[in-house]
Design a protein that fits this description.
The protein is an alpha/beta fold. It is built from 17 helices and 17 strands.
């Protein structure tokens, strides 16, 4: 890999940036990226839906350790798919010391997603992770590396220890990762451990060490990553608050608009001259999904841009076609709106929500949903009174949250992003035979611009249309 992509397709949500989207982008010579979030849960739901198209079966057949994968196929696959009113069986939750099944599902699901994205071409494929979902990192990254992933991209935290993990996994060596545990003492064991050789038979060949790109939102964090990481940081993605999903909070956390959105100011701006001086490739993200912005980024010294929202609504993305078309229609009529919700996410970070009737962006839908936390991607781990590690979520039932030492103020307005994210991609949980979990779609501020990718008379577009439009000014020498 001697060259860098001009366009990195963002690793969005859980299953939005799926293998089909990443494959399409990489085939066209840019960097296709799959989302690594919740792939274990997504895999078991795909299997319970009967594996439409047989794609998961192809992935299972390619996994190099069938003695590990086949029992999971037998457990979760339902020929023809489950009944529409039947609930999904969920994968076991990941913990500091996870059940073996949970570890295997992470490893295998990440392998499959990357393997499928790499099909039909020889170009690089990347995978995106959220640093804050720490319990999944080690088996997920190893599974992706087994499949030959070329880039690991990580944000939503400070991933200083990931480069060292990559260096160890190249030779199938054991790795560790520190789990953040609120209230932990220095003497507490909060380390997650994963040894690939616990699962591999024989002496395997070494793996490709993927390039590591850290997603940052400030000069300070960019400098910290390069100076303090325990291995090579190969590049940076500089993300502005216009990007979808979780945003870094503004430096001033007390300023809000009349609508209740956090206000970003001059103190939140990035000095690109200082970024250039760090001497590593970087890409600009958040508000760059329109013609002319790639050229602007190149003139600032960037290697290119990362684009999410434009690809989110492309034909190949995993967003449910119902929601995709509804939001495209809104954009075509100038009626799309993004609300940067300061409290929706259990993480406490601002979260961009596309306003769409019938989803959890609608107050009535949110209020009508019982507070349930049964997936727990965004749980907070804490030190319990007996010294054990407990977990809690500010979107779980209030009484349960309070019983675990949570603060009532921290639970106000919180929404279950985990169940919403799976509903977004057509795998909503069904409860009591009739209650279907609602969706809640995130997108960037550029959502109103997605009609620019539509040809005359069309109501949908492809990843190729996005790439062509974004490259056009640069390729024409504009």
């Amino acid at each position: 890999m001697d060259t860098y992509p001009l366009i990195i397709q963002g690793g969005m949500g859980a299953g939005i940036s799926n293998w089909q989207l990443a494959q399409s982008v990489s085939r066209l010579g840019q960097l296709g990226v799959v989302s690594g979030t919740a792939l274990d849960q997504i895999l078991v739901r795909r299997l319970q839906d009967g594996d439409p198209g047989g794609h998961m079966r192809r992935g299972f057949d390619a996994f190099p350790m069938p003695f590990l994968s086949e029992p999971l196929w037998a457990k979760y696959f339902i020929p023809g798919g489950k009944a529409a009113t039947a609930p999904y069986r969920t994968a076991p939750k990941l913990m500091k010391d996870s059940p073996t099944e949970a570890t295997l599902l992470c490893m295998i699901s990440n392998f499959i997603e990357v393997f499928l994205a790499r099909g039909g071409h020889d170009n690089p494929v990347g995978i995106n992770y959220l640093e804050k979902i720490q319990t999944a990192h080690l088996p997920s990254i190893f599974g992706a590396m087994l499949a030959g992933v070329s880039y690991i991209i990580m944000g939503a935290g400070i991933p200083l220890k990931i480069p060292g993990v990559l260096d160890l996994f190249v030779n199938h060596c054991a790795a560790e990762y520190a789990l953040h545990v609120t209230g932990a003492l220095d003497t507490d064991d909060t380390t997650i451990r994963f040894n690939p050789r616990d699962f591999i038979k024989g002496e395997p060949a070494s793996l490709l060490r993927p390039r590591f790109l850290a997603i940052v939102s400030s000069n300070t964090l960019a400098t910290t990553m390069l100076r303090k990481a325990n291995g090579t940081v190969d590049g940076l993605v500089i993300e502005a608050p216009e990007a979808g999903g979780h945003n870094a909070p503004p430096r001033s956390r007390s300023n809000f608009s009349e609508a209740g959105e956090p206000i970003y100011g001059e103190r939140d701006a990035v000095d690109f001259a200082k970024i250039r001086d760090l001497g590593v490739p970087f890409w600009l993200a958040g508000g760059y999904g329109r013609p002319g912005k790639l050229q602007e980024a190149l003139e600032l010294g960037a290697s290119g841009i990362q684009v999410g929202t434009a690809f989110e609504f492309a034909d190949e993305s995993g967003l449910s076609s119902t929601f995709k078309q509804a939001l495209i229609d809104k954009a075509m009529h100038g009626d799309s709106h993004i609300f940067t919700d300061p409290v929706a996410s259990p993480t406490g970070f601002p979260f961009k929500v596309a306003q769409l009737e019938g989803t959890a962006s609608d107050l009535d839908v949110y209020v009508d949903r019982p507070r349930i936390c049964d997936l727990g991607f965004l749980r907070e781990f804490y030190r319990a009174a007996d010294g054990s590690i407990g977990n809690r979520c500010s979107a779980e039932p209030l009484s349960v949250y309070l019983s675990k030492g949570g603060n009532a103020a921290d639970a106000a307005g919180r929404k279950c992003l985990c169940n919403c994210l799976l509903a977004n991609i057509g795998h909503p949980q069904v409860r009591s035979g009739h209650h279907v979990e609602p969706a809640m779609i995130t997108a960037g501020n550029d959502i109103g611009l997605i009609p620019q990718f539509l040809s005359a008379g069309a109501s949908s577009y492809s990843a190729a249309d996005v790439i062509e439009r974004l490259l056009e000014p640069v390729m024409s020498g504009a």
